[in-house]
Automatic annotation (TrEMBL):
The keyword Cell membrane applies. Cadherins are calcium-dependent cell adhesion proteins. They preferentially interact with themselves in a homophilic manner in connecting cells; cadherins may thus contribute to the sorting of heterogeneous cell types. May act as a negative regulator of neural cell growth. InterPro entries: Cadherin, Cadherin-like_dom, Cadherin-like_sf, Cadherin_CS, Cadherin_pro_dom. This is Cadherin-13. By contrast to classical cadherins, homodimerization in trans is not mediated by cadherin EC1 domain strand-swapping, but instead through a homophilic adhesive interface which joins two elongated EC1-EC2 domains through a region near their Ca2+-binding sites to form a tetrahedral, X-like shape. The keyword Signal applies. Gene3D superfamilies: Cadherins (2.60.40.60). Its main location: membrane. PANTHER family: CADHERIN-13, CADHERIN-23. GO terms for molecular function: beta-catenin binding; cadherin binding; calcium ion binding. Coiled coil: none annotated.
Length: 713
């Protein structure tokens, strides 16, 4: 036969915290009855006893303190549970927590027929209504420990006890886990002999809501005998956190004239307390509205959702009649479902009344006047309008259109972005002689379309009367520029052309006189009365004042007005080339060694200032030789170059060779130029030329230079 089953000492935790010794078996600390059932009344009456609770810590109940899970109730010192005010609904369950320095326990009040307001505290606390059932083949018995957060001194305080019904003599309890030997360390500890579990400081549920600990028994050498067995510590929430608005700034917009009940924005706050309790059950309300016109209650906030909606009629939500289109609301969030005992937090909601285009722009007057001188351009008048809409939106910004009186597109109108005025401009010069008056019809609209029930009226159009002032206009040459083609070198006094200038002031009788304004070469003269232009010198196409065969001169035409007006005309003379320039050769100096094996002396090139056909092909000849015949030779390379060479070596000396070059003009022109040839002594890579001041180029160098010149042509 096995010995009798050992006595199982259960840990009566679940907030039944046994602080008595094992010898006090005649008294069980805690509530004498742990579960009560009552029917849901029509109303709980203020200060009327609901039931009586009996609690004993087996030590005289010194400093007994009760806490109720609902802020609407309290427990008097005699154990009677009463309501703090008349109330109809409190949920399905109430919990009462009793505590003395020696023991604490929790009782449950089940309200039959009650409705849930927030999650069951029984679920939150994981409260077990019955004693824990020991696991098979285990003698360590544990139950969850419930500890309210923010407990006051003294510490450490016992919060529970672990019981081992079959613990060998000399064995000890050991507690491990987060909060013991893991960070945060040292919060819980266990009496290794008695199994009493204690907490060393107050707890914060918002930091850590539950602790998962492990209990085991070990021998004197620290070896595990049984376990580890899980021990859960649950921190009971207290209402110690105010609601806070974390997502600001809160800015909402609502269109003016919006229907009553239009949602503007949503305000939501956060409460760090347990969301399964009323400690985090928030209710919202508007504490203040600024400004308070035209109604102190322009908006309403849904107490549960935090939605802000309009509550005034669309007519009151008129941006143009409001004192200020911006409202600031002080929003309050209160926990404990909005009860007075709840904690509060506030934030500011800014609501902007947005503009819609419900006002058309209107001209400040029906007719505008403008005066402009003929020929002038730019802004001549600013058209002013009024618009009651928001100046920062397209509902206010104006767009102007000329709808009549501008067939020649002489006028344009643009909006001044700062003033919203219409700037009417002349973009093509007006002519007094054609029309002295103009009448424009202009309309104004907004950038944004009007709302359906608003339209543009007669005030959105205006008439502009423009008077053109006559001014003395400058004479105008026609054509301009004037062009003529003449041969260069025509005789002095030759007539080139007669210029013509007319006065635009056709309604005035005025005379015109001509004069030369710019004549860079001084070749021209003009008759001041009839405008005939003739030459005072020979025209030279090759002059530096002629560019691309064109000579440019400017003339003035001045009328007899008061004050007189002057116009400018341009004359372009195209000069035809004649063969009046002889060609010339290059280079005119060359060197050759007296013992050179290569008898080539130099390659000559020729150029001519005239134009084709008065230039190349050029004819190269030796005009006269001062040495015996058959010493020099000149050979044509191409139309512009020839090669000069020796027929035999010469002694060291300076030689002058007359080269005659003739162009292809009709009649042709010829030029004779002396080619200076230095015959030098070339010994041991040294060149010796006796001629003073003569350049010491070898014949090979001169030949290379000549070839380079030829290659560039």
């Amino acid at each position: 036969m096995q010995p009798a089953t050992p006595l199982v000492l259960c840990v009566l935790l679940s907030q039944v915290l046994l602080l008595t010794s094992a010898e006090d078996l005649d008294c069980t600390p805690g509530f004498q009855q742990k579960v009560f059932h009552i029917d849901q009344p029509a109303e709980f009456i203020e200060d009327q006893a609901i039931l009586n609770l009996t609690f004993s810590d087996c030590k005289g109940n010194d400093k007994l303190h009760y806490e109720v899970s609902s802020p609407y109730f309290r427990v008097n010192t005699d154990g009677s549970l009463v309501a703090l005010r008349n109330i109809t609904a409190v949920g399905k369950t109430l919990f009462v927590h009793a505590r003395t320095p020696h023991a604490e326990d929790m009782a449950e009040l089940v309200i039959v027929g009650g409705k849930d307001i927030q999650g069951s505290l029984q679920d939150i606390f994981k409260f077990a209504r019955t004693s824990p059932v020991p696991r098979q083949k285990r003698s360590i018995v544990v139950s969850p420990i419930l500890i309210p957060e923010n407990q006051r001194q003294p510490f450490p305080r016992d919060v529970g006890k672990v019981v081992d019904s079959d613990r060998p003599e000399g064995s000890k309890f050991r507690l491990t886990g987060k909060g013991v030997d893991q960070e945060p360390k040292g919060i819980f500890r266990i009496n290794e002999n008695t199994g009493s579990v204690s907490v060393t400081r107050n707890l914060d549920r918002e930091t850590i809501a539950t602790y998962q600990l492990f209990v085991e028994t070990v021998d004197v050498n620290g070896r595990t005998l049984e376990g580890p067995v899980p021990l859960e510590v649950i921190v009971i929430d207290q209402n110690d956190n105010r609601p806070i608005f974390r997502e600001g700034p809160y800015i909402g917009h609502v269109m003016e004239g919006s229907p009553t009940g239009t949602t503007v924005m949503r305000m939501t706050a956060f409460d760090a307390d347990d969301p399964a309790t009323d400690n985090a059950l928030l209710r919202y309300n508007i504490r203040q509205q600024t400004p308070d016109k035209p109604s102190p209650n322009m908006f309403y906030i849904d107490p549960e959702k935090g939605d802000i909606v309009t509550v005034v009629s669309p007519a009151l939500l008129d941006r143009e009649t409001l004192e200020n289109p911006k409202y600031e609301l002080i929003i309050e969030a209160q926990d404990m479902a909005g009860l007075d005992v709840g904690l509060t937090g506030t934030a500011t909601a800014t609501i902007m009344i947005d503009d819609k285009n419900d006002h058309s722009p209107k001209f400040t007057k029906k007719e505008f006047q403008a005066t402009v001188e003929e020929g002038a351009m730019g802004v001549i008048v600013n058209l002013t309008v009024e618009d009651k809409d928001d100046p920062t939106t397209g509902a206010w910004r104006a767009a102007y259109t000329i709808i009549n009186g501008n067939p020649g597109q002489s006028f344009e109108i643009h909006t001044n972005p700062q003033t919203n005025e219409g700037m009417l401009s002349v973009v093509k010069p007006l002519d007094y002689e054609i029309s002295a008056f103009h009448t424009l019809l202009i309309k104004v609209e907004n950038e944004d379309p009007l709302v359906p029930d608003v339209s543009y009226g007669s005030s959105s159009t205006a008439t502009v009367h423009i008077t053109v002032l006559d001014v003395n206009e400058s004479p105008v040459f026609y054509p301009d520029p004037m062009m003529v083609t003449k041969q260069e070198n025509i005789s002095v006094g030759s007539v080139l052309l007669t210029v013509n200038a007319t006065d635009p002031d056709s309604l005035q009788r005025q005379t015109i006189r001509y004069s030369v304004y710019k004549d860079p070469a001084g070749w021209l003269n003009i008759n001041p009365i009839n405008g005939t232009v003739d030459t005072t010198a020979l025209l030279d196409r090759e002059s530096p004042f002629v560019h691309n065969s064109i000579y440019t001169a400017l003339f003035l035409a001045t009328d007899s007005g008061n004050p007189p007006a002057t116009g400018t005309g341009t004359l372009l003379i195209t000069l035809e080339d004649v063969n009046d320039n002889a060609p010339f050769i290059y280079p005119t100096v060359a060197e050759v060694c007296d013992d050179a094996k290569n008898l080539s002396v130099v390659i000559l090139g020729a150029t001519d200032k005239d134009l084709h056909p008065n230039t190349d092909p050029f004819k190269f000849e030796i005009h006269k030789q001062t040495v015996p015949d058959k010493v020099w030779k000149i050979s044509k390379i191409n139309n512009t170059h020839a090669l000069v060479s020796l027929l035999q070596n010469l002694n060291k000396a300076n030689y002058h060779l007359p080269i005659m070059v003739t162009d292809s003009g009709k009649p042709p022109m010829t030029n004779i130029t002396d080619l200076r040839v230095q015959v030098c002594s070339c010994k041991n890579s040294k060149v010796d030329c006796n001629a003073a001041g003569a350049p010491h180029f070898s014949a090979a160098t001169a030949l290379l230079l000549s070839l380079f010149s030829l290659a560039r042509l």
